[in-house]
Design goal:
Order of helices and strands: HHHHHHHHHH
Number of strands: 0
Helix content: over 70%
Distance between the termini: 53 Å
Strand content: under 5%
Number of helices: 10
Length: about 230
């Protein structure tokens, strides 16, 4: 058993919750680091990026969906180490998928967007952690909005191809993932309250990090449409 999750017996509630949440955020930022390093390494090889275009990129995308689905559905039955490895396999695949960003946008604008995302994400995480308001009532609205955003984005990409609609969708995406971030952080506090055993708590530490990782990545991509400067 990982000693860091033996918190409910050995630590007070506040210290135990703080330890749990720090574990979640540490895993999330470690995964972001893996994604960033992989994306940079792949982006330096233009021939490799070209070879990934088309069918190969779709294979990577479906591999990501498969990992996310398996992690969500089988979390309770898998080992903590398995959940951790799946999460970081997802982070590696995301790095490969995002590699073209390093070719399309300047490094400076990517760095600025990342720092902006980190600041915005941090602010929403603090709100989710400290607010006394129960954000559960927002969940239906947030996830219905997310489904509508995905569907509209697909339609715009395939049929409408409107740059104006793309900008509007980006704004909606930023707002939605800001709300989802606050909701996910508050939900992790609830999970800490309700889960009695340390092994299950460790699994949800990994899964919570995965959820927040997705929130951060999506927020970054939507902000990049506003802040990113394309290379000539």
């Amino acid at each position: 058993m990982d000693y860091r999750y033996a918190t409910k017996r050995s630590l007070g509630y506040n210290e135990g919750l703080r330890t749990f949440m720090l574990g979640v955020f540490n895993k999330m930022f470690l995964a972001l680091g893996v994604t960033g390093v992989v994306a940079w390494m792949v982006s330096t090889n233009l021939q490799l990026v070209k070879s990934l275009a088309g069918g190969a990129m779709w294979l990577l995308f479906f591999a990501q969906l498969g990992i996310a689905g398996y992690l969500s559905l089988r979390l309770q039955k898998m080992q903590v180490s398995t959940a951790f490895n799946l999460f970081f396999a997802y982070a590696v695949l995301t790095g490969i998928v995002l590699a073209p960003i390093g070719i399309v946008y300047t490094g400076e604008s990517i760095a600025i967007t990342f720092l902006t995302t980190a600041s915005f994400f941090g602010a929403m995480s603090i709100i989710g952690y400290t607010t006394k308001k129960d954000l559960t009532s927002m969940a239906t609205f947030l996830f219905a909005g997310l489904l509508a955003l995905i569907l509209t984005s697909v339609l715009n990409t395939l049929f409408f191809k409107s740059s104006g609609m793309s900008m509007v969708l980006s704004i909606v995406g930023i707002v939605l993932f800001a709300g989802i971030t606050a909701y996910d952080v508050q939900n992790l506090k609830k999970i800490y309250n309700y889960i009695p055993d340390n092994e299950t708590l460790a699994k949800f530490s990994v899964f919570g990090a995965f959820q927040l990782y997705l929130d951060f990545i999506n927020m970054f991509l939507y902000l990049l449409r506003f802040l990113g400067n394309r290379r000539n």
